[in-house]
Amino acid sequence: MKVITISTPTKALNALLEQARQENIILRMSDGTEFVLAEIDDFDREIALTQQNEDLMLFLERRAQQTQTVGLADVKEQFGLR
Q: What would the pLDDT profile of 22-62 be if each residue is shown by its tens digit?
């Protein structure tokens, strides 16, 4: 994801950004291409950055493939919590 800083927005762009603060907007070009303009909060940004972390995504993918589970009693026993 690329971040572009807008130093001198136009009135039209300001109006679109103000609308996007209220609700997501779909921008449709004359050729039918569509884009989404949406405000992102810190959580959305964190998700996007996390998804770009290849090592973490690989770990999570491997973890999702695991089918075996460990019961709470076994964990307590393993850590001497009985």
A: 998 999 999 999 998 988 876 777 788 888 899 999 999 99
Among candidate residues 38, 46, 2, the one with its CA nearest the CA of residue 21:
38
Domain interval for residue 22: 11-65
Is residue 17 classed exposed, middle or buried when 0-12, 13-18 and 19+ CB atoms within 10 A define those classes? Answer: middle
β partners of residue 34? 28
Average pLDDT over residues 63-81: 90
Whether 56 is in a domain gets the answer: yes
Question: Per DSSP, what are the bridge partners of residue 25?
Answer: 37
Half-sphere exposure of 79 (CA within 13 A, CB side): 7
- Tokens for 54, please give them: 């290849």
Number of domains in the chain: 1
* pTM for the structure as a whole: 0.47
